[in-house]
Amino acid sequence: MRSSSHALRLGVLTALLLSQVCSGIRWLTLSHAPASLHINQTHHCKLLPGLVSSQAQLCRTNLELMQTIIQAAREVKKTCQKTFADMRWNCSSIDIPSDAPKYRPDLERGTREAAFVYALSAATISHTIARACTSGDLRVCSCGPIPAEIPEPGYRWGGCADNLHYGLMMGSKFSDAPMKMKRASSNANKLMHLHNSEAGRRALREALVMKCKCHGVSGSCSIRTCWRGLQDLREIAMDLKTKYLSATKVVHRPSGTRKQLVPKDIDIRPLRENELVYLQSSPDFCTKNEKQGSVGTQDRQCNKTSLGSDSCDLMCCGRGYNPYTEKLVERCHCKYHWCCYVTCKKCERIVERYVCK
């Protein structure tokens, strides 16, 4: 209890620092919240780092939801770094101390990296809330509705569908709140972040698939009970990574009666709602450059035999690489014993690794 109170008090200073920043992903600093922290009183909300006033208000009226949102912040960080582990930019921008005044420039300048993080953040918060409804972690919601259409013969609706409707409703309210403030950054950045957040939620809607469980004598699967469930977040992140690689550069210019984001290359087709857009070109992330938000690739591990983005040639930007050896201890020669256990031996092997110069 004491450690939780101490963490909340520390959040006061953080909140004051962050109140000067209107970044729509400041709530991701909630990933630093200690596991022992429980938001169960309304005054806790104003002490949480990274929340703008409307998010704090949402917290006060939905205390139970905040534990799920904290979990979502941790999932964004973990999923982003796993998804880009084979790239020069490996989502290190998210991993900053909670008391830092702002994110690194690659997430503040309207780059395609920012586009991915906003899209992933919006998708993750709604995904996490939808799944929390299904698992019973949130008492304010339950399973998603049964589809109106009649299933095929041999199929029936049942189970507990992920409550995507509630996830999208509450997730968008929370994640879009900073961009809808009157003082929220420049209008171009605001439009970009809102567009990419909605693209992330569209990717989530497309990830709602039919899942079934078989029933029948001896596993005959004569009938299937089915429900609508979301794909794993990792799959959604990979879909967004594809959109990141094909993102469209846009400019903020008059279109009709107001300024809108339009493709920089006028000849290109109109923007699609499910694609990612960016305003500023990214650095190559080869060398460390604090001004541009690049941490460089020195000492990053690379794959000598790969032809992809994790290859030593691409990852190390032509600077070369250094080999080193590592000893791995693995289970081996496993044997099943009746009944019912398995015994294994431990085997050692030496593997060669490579890191960028």
Automatic annotation (TrEMBL):
Domain of life: Eukaryota
GO molecular function annotation: cytokine activity; frizzled binding
InterPro entries named in the record: Wnt, Wnt_C, Wnt_CS
UniProt-listed GO biological process terms: animal organ development; canonical Wnt signaling pathway; cell fate commitment; neuron differentiation
Signal peptide: 1-24
SMART domains linked to this entry: WNT1 (SM00097)
Localization annotation: Secreted, Extracellular space, Extracellular matrix
Pfam families tied to this protein: wnt
Claim: Iron is one of the keywords in the record: no
Record-level GO cellular component terms: extracellular space
Keywords per UniProt: Developmental protein, Disulfide bond, Extracellular matrix, Glycoprotein, Lipoprotein, Secreted, Signal, Wnt signaling pathway
Function: Ligand for members of the frizzled family of seven transmembrane receptors.
PANTHER family in the record: PROTEIN WNT-11 (PTHR12027:SF7), WNT RELATED (PTHR12027)
Family per similarity comment: Belongs to the Wnt family.
UniProt protein name: Protein Wnt
Lineage: Eukaryota, Metazoa, Chordata, Craniata, Vertebrata
Gene name tied to this protein: wnt11
